[in-house]
Every structure is written in structure tokens, then in C-alpha cells.
Amino acid sequence: MEAKKCESLEEARVEIDKVDEKIVELIALRNSYIKQMAHFKNSIDEIKSKDRIDSVIQRVRAKAIELNLSPNLISDIYLRLIDEMVESEIAEFKNAKNF
Questions:
Q1: Which pTM value belongs to this model?
Q2: Which of 5, 26, 53, 67 has the fewest CB atoms within 10 Å, i.e. the most exposed one?
Q3: What confidence score (pLDDT) does residue 96 get?
Q4: In this prediction, what percent of the chain has a pLDDT beyond 90?
């Protein structure tokens, strides 16, 4: 993954906008999988699995380091993302189980 060489500020902004759009699409895709997972779990405690969350954070921190990004920034982003998606998954779980 390599950034295009831009010739102007405007061109760089256009490219950033394209990346932002893809990021949002990927987050939506991730959330779709999260909602599917709710149908395979048996409890809310299983949804809130600290071990799984820790594993995800370790994996994305390692990827951040590999890509020369701040692992703390990536951790912060993912912790927020996971918090929101856990709530989404709980709602889906309750819907599926008719709580």
C-alpha cells in the first residue's frame, strides 16, 4: 500500500477524501460481520469477551508498528470502535434471542 505522489494540496485532499470513504465503508463492513456474530453467541458476556478484545488490540497495534503508525493512536481508535460495535452486537443478540 503506497500513497500516490500528489502534485497539489487539492489533489492530496481529493485522495484523502477517497481514503476516508473507503475507511467508512470498511467500518460498515466490519459492523455487518459483528452483527452476524451475535447469532452465534450464547450470552452477552460472550459478546463482551475481554480476551478477544485484547487479542484484537494486540493485533492492530502490531500492524500499526509494522506500518510506522502510532500504536497508541490505533489502540484508541479500535477501543472506541469496539465499544460501539459491542453495543451494536448486544442489540442484535437481544433481537435474535427475543429478550
A1: 0.87
A2: 5
A3: 86
A4: 93
Handedness of CA 88, 94, 95, 99 (dihedral sign): negative
Domain boundaries of the chain, sorted by first residue: 9-97
**What is the overall mean pLDDT for the chain?**
95
Q: Which CATH superfamily is domain 9-97 in?
A: Chorismate mutase (1.20.59.10)
For residue 1, pLDDT over 80 is answered with no
In angstroms, the Cα distances linking 82 to 30, 41, 89, 95, 96 are: 10, 17, 10, 20, 20
Who contacts 39 (Cβ-Cβ below 8 Å, separation ≥6)? Answer: 92, 93, 96
CA dihedral angle for residue 12, residue 80, residue 91, residue 97, rounded to 10 degrees: 110
